[in-house]
Amino acid sequence: MNNRRARTVLALLSCCFCLSLAQQPGRFNIVLQNAGISSMHTAVTHYGNVIFLDRTNIGPSAINLVGNCRDNPADMMTTHDCTAHSVIYDPSSNTVRPVFIYSDTWCSSGQFLPNGTLMQTGGSADGGSIIRYFTPCSSGSWCNWMESSTNLQSSRWYASNQILPDGRIIVVGGRGVYNYEFQPTGGQFYLQVPQGYGRLPG
């Protein structure tokens, strides 16, 4: 009888201990006081480092592009800009490195490709039809955003990107854009969404 009672008490104590652990709140820690930009998009790469992406058309950021200025006459705010609008954060060293990006990514959308490259499409103003690629590199290596020589078939602001089983990306819609396209295109032109389907009144 005492043995049975002891096992019951031990089982109840174990349950109480497990419940108390399950109810412990999570917590956030600030690991970096200032990344130099205000991140609009953030993605963790397969190397474990983190790419931050901000818009380019709001003026200078708080982190310099070392020896590499962005001269973009189509930029709405700063045509000559020597500050970064993308950074890569390395958690192992708790440091950021500026990353060069040319066109405006405001309201762009992105998706990782099967090889780990981040494809970012569209944006605002000069970036609306741009396709950008960021191929992550390991700590201590140097990698930057690259813009494709081909553009999206429609300028897209707030589109949606999704990877398909064959590794292509479907890019759907965007503000005032009622079609979709594939990247790479595979020779297909954009496809119109059926009239009235998925549109909000007004």
From TrEMBL:
Highest taxon in the source lineage: Eukaryota
Signal peptide: 1-22
Keywords carried by this UniProt record: Signal
InterPro entries (alphabetical): Gal_Oxase/kelch_b-propeller, Gal_Oxidase_central_sf, Glyoxal_oxidase_N
Sequence ranges assigned to domain Glyoxal oxidase N-terminal in this UniProt record: 40-185
SUPFAM superfamilies according to UniProt: Galactose oxidase, central domain (SSF50965)
Gene3D superfamilies membership: Galactose oxidase/kelch, beta-propeller
Keyword Signal belongs to the record: yes
Alphabetical list of Pfam families matching this protein: Glyoxal_oxid_N (PF07250)
Protein name: Glyoxal oxidase N-terminal domain-containing protein
